[in-house]
Design a protein that fits this description.
membrane; 2 strands; two-stranded antiparallel ribbon; transmembrane helix; mainly alpha
Amino acid sequence: MGETPRRLAWLVPSGATAAARTPFVVLVVALLGAGLIALLLLNAAVNQGSFELGELRRDTTVLTDEEQRLQREIDAYAAPDALSRRAGELGMVPGGAPAFLSLDGRVRGSASPAPVPPRPAPSPTPTPTPKASASAGAARAGEGASQSPTAGPTADPAPSGASQSAPSPAAPAQER
């Protein structure tokens, strides 16, 4: 029985052999740790990319909706009835039958000027109406009292350096 421990002795490492295996074990553990950290970082990068992708998809959806809304608005402006209405507002009239020029110089069809549409009657400019009787207005002008803001313009001359009353807001609309 004395031989049995010797036969199994080679299975148990001696002091020098155990010291030689320690750097290898440390290297394997370090490689496994580095692999786990790399896997963790890769997973975090994939998740970040996934969040960015989701945000970009939401942005794309919002922009697509806005593009569709703007296209519908353009289509509404380009519709024949809208174009006709807008042209009428601008004073345009339908052209009538067209005339064509051929390459040899002949005119095909008969050209005629477009009919002139009736112009809408301009809106009358409001004239101020005096609130008091003529005698009260003369008495007020004689006293030199200042006018109330609701009173209309008078024939009194304006003091030097004072500007004339501003034109009514309806006047620029008539000039166009």
